[in-house]
Amino acid sequence: MPDAKKTEKIKHRYNRIAKLYDVVEKPMENMFSKHRKEMLRNACGNVLEVGVGTGKNFHYYPDNVEVTAIDFSPKMVKIASEKAKDLKNIKDVLEMNVENMTFADNTFDTVVTSCVFCSVPHPVKVLKEIKRVCKNGGKVLMLEHVKSNKPVLAPFMDILNPVPFHLYGANINRDTVDNLRKAGFKNIFVEDLWLDILKLITIRNDK
Ligand SMILES: C[S@@+](CC[C@H](N)C(=O)[O-])C[C@H]1O[C@@H](n2cnc3c(N)ncnc32)[C@H](O)[C@@H]1O
After folding, report:
1. Does residue 144 line the site of ligand 1, with CB under 6 A?
2. For ligand 1, is residue 120 a contact (CB within 6 Å)?
3. pLDDT (tens digit, 9 = 90+) per residue, 167-203?
4. Which domain holds residue 170?
């Protein structure tokens, strides 16, 4: 499938689920919220959040940061913008594709992603874009689920993958840590939060 068509298809799936997203994800959120909090206490300065969805992270940012959030789904952006209205540290919520961001090189002190790399159509390309817009010595903070390395789980996740992909546009068998290396990141610190599937990844962006 051509790249542009693949992107449109995934965008369409997130537009379709946007209104129901918080309800559908609620059972997972009990586990996720504490990890969001843990990750975001390390955010500092001028922050970019990519694939913001409905803005689930907004309440966990420290007061003294300034967040710009982007998503390519206009329906997600609309919901996140509503949530941001009363929050002084959320500066902008913009409709933008993370594959081709309009920000200048070295703009952000921190880049944040949560549950985004299951769904971005071209993960290595996106990670290179993140590397570009993040300052030298800046941080990339990621809360991501990936494919397990365990011999029983790994093939099972491959078999199951078409189900979330067709519902959401989300893959459960991505190797995000390997993709980070492919994109040129070096200082990658990985903490397993649930089995070897849910990970808190902290990266220092040395250029
Ligand atoms: C699984 S949701 C996660 C939302 C949010 N980060 C969270 O933690 O709940 C993935 C989000 O990434 C967005 N997304 C996927 N690919 C994107 C791209 N290329 N550019 C911008 N946003 C993208 C989707 O529209 C969706 O809102």
Report:
1. no
2. yes
3. 777 899 999 999 999 999 999 999 999 999 999 999 9
4. 3-205
Question: How is residue 43 annotated by DSSP?
Answer: -
Kindly state the DSSP code that residue 145 receives in the 8-state scheme: E
pLDDT in tens, 123-133: 999 999 999 99
CATH number at residue 180: 3.40.50.150
**Integer Cα distance of 132 and 104 in angstroms:** 8
How far is Cα 13 from Cα 130, in angstroms, rounded to an integer? 23
pLDDT reported for residue 2: 62
Asked if residue 95 has its Cβ within 6 Å of ligand 1, the reply is: no
Count of domains observed in the chain: 1
- Distance in angstroms (rounded) separating the CA atoms of residues 197 and 103: 31
Measure 51 CA to ligand 1 centroid, in angstroms.
Answer: 3
72 lines ligand 1 (CB under 6 A): yes
